[in-house]
Target: DUF3052 family protein
Amino acid sequence: MGRQAKAFWIEAGQRTAVTLHLESDALEVRGGRRAKVSRSQCRRIDAVDGVMVFEAGGDSFRFELGAAASAWAKALATPAPTLAEKLGVAHGETVAVRGELPVSELMEALAESARVVPWEASVVVAVVRTEAELDSLPDWLRECGVVAPVWIVHGKGRASTAPGDNAVRAVMRAAGFRDTKVSAIGGTWSATRYSPLKGA
Model:
């Protein structure tokens, strides 16, 4: 979930109550009016008197956000982090992978990272496609002596047959791990980062 705020969409002198959702790839508008604007198309982004203004796809947009307008304009103008940056592997960090990577986006994100054994890795990526793979994961992490953050790649949405975030959370928390971050991966896959609880 990205940045979210209540706002008024101002157009032709009318103010319509909406909710803004700033995701990694787009600004989504819901409520009294709806729209989805690709972040890559946004130009001339500014904040004036509590109103965020920008252009995209030949249209002009004005959203009244009050004191938050400047922060929103800055966030919209800042390039979204790459998947490699989200996973913490954008600067030469080493990685260990358990399981077959399910989508090209993840393969590309890890392409520049040296593969090492799990106990030496800066980041561990574990793919869980079945309940059995999920259930065996905590013991595998302990047997391998993993101390680095672990990104568990799991299913997302009803179309996925892999365990989802709720199933992963139940198993990992019961095993003494805590979830600290979530990242979309691509298609029907998402990932959640886990770290062992202190003293666990």
